[in-house]
Structures are given as C-alpha cells and as structure tokens.
Amino acid sequence: PVAPAATIGTASLSVPHTSNTRASTSSLPADHDSLQVSPALPSPSRNSDSIAASRALVQLVRDATNVPFDQCRLAVQTVLDFFQAHCSTHTLADIAHAVSMATPPASSDRTRLEAIMQELTNIKNDAQQRSWSIYDDSDVIESLLNELLVLAEQADPLIVADAIETWHSPGQQGAFELPETVVLYFQMESRLRLRIAVLNVLLAFVALNPRLLPVLQETVLVAELARDLVSTAAAPATAPKLLLSLRMLHELLGCARPLPAFHHSAFTSDVINALFNLTELEDPQYDQVAEMAVRCVPRLSETLGHSNNAVLDTLTTRHCPNFSAKLMLLFNRLEDFAVLLPFLEAVYRDPARGERFLYTTDLRVLVEVLMRELVDRPTADPLRLACLKTIAAVLSGSDYQSTDTADLLVGRFVVLSCLCVVHSCSHKHTHTH
C-alpha cells in the first residue's frame, strides 16, 4: 500500500543502478539530461586508493551541499562519466568504478549519527523519562528522532546500516543497541507524534539493515504493537499511526525467522478482534489501514500454528465480509500467494468456517485461480502441491459443489485435475501426499 504523508520513503541497501535506489534525477539541474553519459565502464582493478578516493569525493559533495547521499553519488558518477568519455585514463576508470564500493570509516554523517544516538540514550536514562513530572521533553525527543530519520533517508545507506548494528554507548557491548533504545521509547511513550516518529525510524532501520528484524522479534515491540491495536481507536488523527503499527507488525511476522513462541500470548482474542475490526473499515480514508490489516491476518495465523489459533477461532464465530473480499483481491493478484494458500486451506479445513467465509462469486474466483495456477506453474513448483491441498480443503469444507449443476460439474473436473496433477508429480510427492 502507498504510505501516507506521515510515513517515510522506502530506504534501501541496494547499490546504484538498481530499481530500489533512492537517487532521483528530478533534483538535478535541468540541463542534466543534455549530458551524454558514456556506456558502462569496464571492470578495472578495484584498488583501495580508488575506493577511498571515490567515496571521499561523494561525501565531500554531500558535506558541501547537504544533498541526499544517493543524489550526490549520481552527480559524481555523471561528472566522472563525462571525464571518462574525454580522458580515458586508468585512474579515472578506477575511481568511477569504485563510487559504489565500501564505505569510508569516518564521515560527518557518522559523527552526527553517533551524537544523536548518545543523546537519545542519555534522555532515556534520565529521571524525566522515568517519572514524566519535571518538564515536557517531547519536542527534544521528536527533533532527535526526525533528524535520525532524515539521516536514514539521505545519508550513505552503508554508513547508517553499519551504525545501526555496531554503535554502542560507553561501557556497553553487543550489537543493535540503538534500535533497542528506540524500541524502549515506543514502550514508554504514549504521545501520538512521538510514537509515529519512533515507528518511522524503526521501519527505516529495517529497510537499511534486514538483520535487525530477528533482534526486534526478541524485544517488547511485538507485545506493544499488539496492545496498540486494542488501545488505538480508528480516527483521522490516529490513522497514520495505525498504518505504521500494522506495517511494523507485518515486517515482524514476515521475517524468515519465526516469531518466538513467548509472544503468542500477546495475541489475545481482543487483539484479534481489533485486527479484524480494522479490516472491516469502509471509510476510504482508512483503505490503506484496512488493506495492511488484511495482509497481517494470514501471517499472524501462520505464526500461531494449527493448535489454539485465535485467528481461525475468531473466523469460526465471526463473519467478516470485507476481510474476505479484500483477501480475494490479493489472492487474485497473486500477492502474498505463498502465505494465503496455507491460510485458505486452514480456513476450509473446518466446514463451520468454510461455508460462511466467501460468497459464491468469490468462491468461484478462488477455485478458478487455483486451477489456473495448477496449469501455469512448473511441475516441480512446491506451490503447485499447496494449490492441490487448498482445492481439496475447499471441496470438503464448503458448499461449492452444491450451488448448482454447472458448479457440480466444475467441482468434478477439479477433482479429476487434482488426480492428474498428483499422478504427474514426483514419486516422493505421490507417496507422501
């Protein structure tokens, strides 16, 4: 979903010339397009002098102009390409090739990052932060968090990613002290604007350094996000924070490392119902909130497992038409397809849920998509077997075959198709499933 005004732009660890780079030619002078950029440079030797000189040059441009790092890198690369076209020396080729290489050990951005980190740590540990009765420090905290966010968006991503992981305050050891400190601000703060700032910073950090996600899974952030869903009422003022909370929860649930089991108790029936309430919002201003809530539900169900699954239990007793319809839109677009398949199989494993989950039209779309994917996907694709299992669950857990005669014939054809596909599967799959 498109992020609202309160959210950050997407940051990336990617090097130049990729689709995720944050550099934009729109901020360069108008005559930039008139420059004839030379073809891609050959791959010269990557000596340390060229790497150091190139990165230092980009950082000098940033220090002098205060322009985002990626745009400085693009400007430097354009200049070097121009010189390369007119002066094909080996030294220039080395420098041009090394613009995207390793980050220098020191820069003004790194120095400022460390100063902000230390100040946030000091504020966290002072008496004011523990008692809330001396003076209002929200402006100071918000200013530091916003500056941290600007650096995460505009500074050299390699510098920021390294600082996120390696910085620690005097006397402390271990990695990721900074993001853990930011998480504590989310736990201690109830002020809306500070929580929005904290979530923006954490999402930017995760985009820059994906190794942070397993660390955040071990913190109180998961429980705080779950509690936030219950305590935050849907209102225009809180919509940006709700969207950020759901985005953060979606990242934590989607991590390759499963969510630790001790967090499962945080997702009570109240939390699950609050999540489904968000999926049912019909006001257009909450469309992004509702869609992100829909995306979170299957991931949460997968995290909770098959036994004592509060998500599936809620669907047994509660009808959620908007959730079902929005889920089918994602499914038809094959978004989160690998996550939605086992979720739908689990839903239809119990007829009490399956018979009320989808309207007849959506049920037909579900079967059509599954049949289409069975035909289109390669035989060795593991999702093909997941499609088969989902079709079997749909046929046994819904009234699909009893809608009318045509549907009954289609249902029989699906069964025959399943048998044919199983027969064409590998020997191992045929005997196992």
SS-based class:
mainly alpha
List SSEs in N-to-C order. HHHHHHHHHHHHHHHHHHHHHH
- How much helical structure, as a percent, in the residues? 55-70%
Largest sheet: none
Concise account of the structure shown:
This protein has 433 residues and is an all-alpha fold. It is built from 22 helices and no strands. It is globular, with a radius of gyration of 26 Å.
Which features does this protein show?
single chain; 433 residues; mainly alpha; 65% helix; 0% strand; disordered N terminus
Task: Describe the protein in words.
- Mean pLDDT is 79; it is low at 1-45 and 426-433.
- The chain has 433 residues and is mainly α.
- The longest helix is centred in the C-terminal third of the chain and has 20 residues, at 405-424.
- It contains 22 helices and no strands.
- The two termini are 37 Å apart.
- 34% of the residues are buried.
- α11 runs antiparallel to α12.
Helix-strand layout with pairing:
Blueprint: H1 48-65, H2 69-86, H3 90-97, H4 108-125, H5 127-131, H6 138-154, H7 157-166, H8 177-188, H9 192-208, H10 212-217, H11 221-231, H12 239-253, H13 269-279, H14 287-304, H15 310-317, H16 321-332, H17 337-348, H18 351-357, H19 360-376, H20 382-397, H21 405-424, H22 427-432
